[in-house]
## 1
Amino acid sequence: MTVLIDGKAFAKRLRDFISLQVADIKSSLGVVPGLATILVGEDPASEVYVRNKSKQTIETGMASFKHTLGSATSEAEVLKLIAQLNADDRVHGILVQLPLPRHINAEKVINAIEPAKDVDGFHVSNVGMLGTGQKAMLPCTPLGCIMMLRDHFGSLSGKNALVVGRSNIVGKPMAQLLLADDCTVTMAHRYTEDLEGHCRRADILVMAVGRPEMIPGDWIKPGATVIDVGINRVERDGTTKLVGDVDFKSASLVAGAITPVPGGVGPMTIACLLFNTLTAFCRAKS
Ligand code: GUN
């Protein structure tokens, strides 16, 4: 029997835990953790993401500081806002929604965030600290994936893990987290030879590519655990449907456990952002 890893339910448990912690902090210290979001421009998908992040921040009892800037905003203006938020004691986490308009250098903007407030874990200091085993802010999507894997397995020690996709946001930090949990990690990408062979050897398969249903069930090792980060919109039978990077129907016949799309990794990402904001608050106070 294949286990369905229910990210939606896991995310709810995590948010409930955060809400309790925030209520405790509020009653004992009289303050709450705060998350500032910065959205530049009018990308509709980004607007939805930022709205959801802000809504869930408020639902857990934390403070949300939403900054929505026009698409003509200069890089200097964004950097000035970040400097203000870095210095603001009410703000414990700062998130700059990506992608930024082309005239703004995203690396420069992200690296202007105070690393302790970098709740996305994208600052070069946090990336370096993760790579060297120091206490870093961890990127939200890989953090959600490793939480679900630890919950499912207990120990990940000695497992063969394959990460497909090498983005800075998901693939690379995911590989680092699996390595830190003592997996034997392989990273695959568009130039990898014999992807099928690598898949067949993987006890843990993490897909983070963004190509609808690219992995068929018969590439998966029987009993493997599949974490599907892909969220792809496809037109099927006249309607729009969300599918992962794995062909769920055939994969779920072979895998030991699998995350569905939607309802798997997706809900964990925002829950982990809230978790990181709480963590940033606690580290600032300790
Ligand atoms: N755009 C797509 N994913 C992300 C994310 O995890 N964080 C931010 N800031 N922007 C994104």
## 2
Amino acid sequence: DQPLPHSASGEVTAETDLSALAPPSRPARRWTPKRVVVTPAALDEEHGRRIVERVEALGIEVERLKANRLTGVRGETDRETYARAKSTLAVVVSPPSRRTLQPIAPSADWRVDLAEGCPAHCQYCYLAGSLSGPPVTRVYADLDGILAGLTDYVGTGTVTSRSRARSAEGTTFEASCYTDPLALDHLTGSWQRAVEHFGAWDAPVQLRWTTKYGDVDRFVDLPHAGRTRVRFSVNCLPVTRRWEGGTSTLEQRLAALRRLASAGYPVGLTIAPIMPLDGWREHYGHLLDLVEAAVAEVPDLDLTAELITHRFTASSKEVLLGWYPRTTLEMDEARRSVKRGRFGTSKHVYPKEVMGELRRWFEDQLAQRLPQCRVLYWT
Ligand code: SF4
């Protein structure tokens, strides 16, 4: 059990106090954007008008743009642009290209986008390098058309994501690729409607999303019919406290997981990004203690786990260092192996022996501590 050589810097202290799982003393975090804008095209959509009504009912002013182009986001410096963009919500119509769904193995058969962007400040954010331009959060007003268009994809899927463990779930649609649903749903209601849409759908389908927020009040009593799997993105306390700004706390996420599981939702853990910090076994062991306590005695628990190690690309590193110039997050090419993907892309991942050690540990620990949990993939 040797310490791994690729540790992130910084001292961390393990906390083993399970009282963290008492009902959170603070309500789950809710984002209040500083500026909300809506385009004319979005106002032509019924759901666009619903979002405006909802936002105004929360006492937030909505600026009606004259054209369908978003302006006024760039500041004098990159920092200012980042800060302005991250505090702006734009209600827009989705780009036409988004209506043709893309495969998204291994997490699901198809990717469906109800929004793009996220108000949180994770210093490893996987959106960096994937999305271009200032990181404004855009929510889509043409939700009804987006959901109606999914019918064409039922019964289709990417073979790699249709493992035996998941075939009972039917065609799966991932709705959190470029956003965090529970960071935004109180402003849009989009994911609530999606849950109801899937719940009423007479076909073998599943909606899936992952979140770092715990704001689930509005979901508990929805007629979900077991067709939405909500996964909570979790990490050990040193990672979550140090590098996940603006998100709900770990205990809020786990309390939310318990509430949804108790309401009959299939649930999941997205343990990501896994990092071999100093003392990682102890820290991730503590995380699994908290998960065990969170799911204890939940009847008919349907729990999955997706295990994703930290990685970065040249472009994500550049963007992240622009956003978080003083970050202590390790993004050192010399400590990583290069993994080449399709289309000539390359990612910096942990070396093979580190990956092997992490993987063995997680799979063993999950099998021992949470035998009912199905591990869907490791990457
Ligand atoms: Fe990025 Fe997800 Fe964090 Fe949002 S919650 S900043 S999408 S990693």
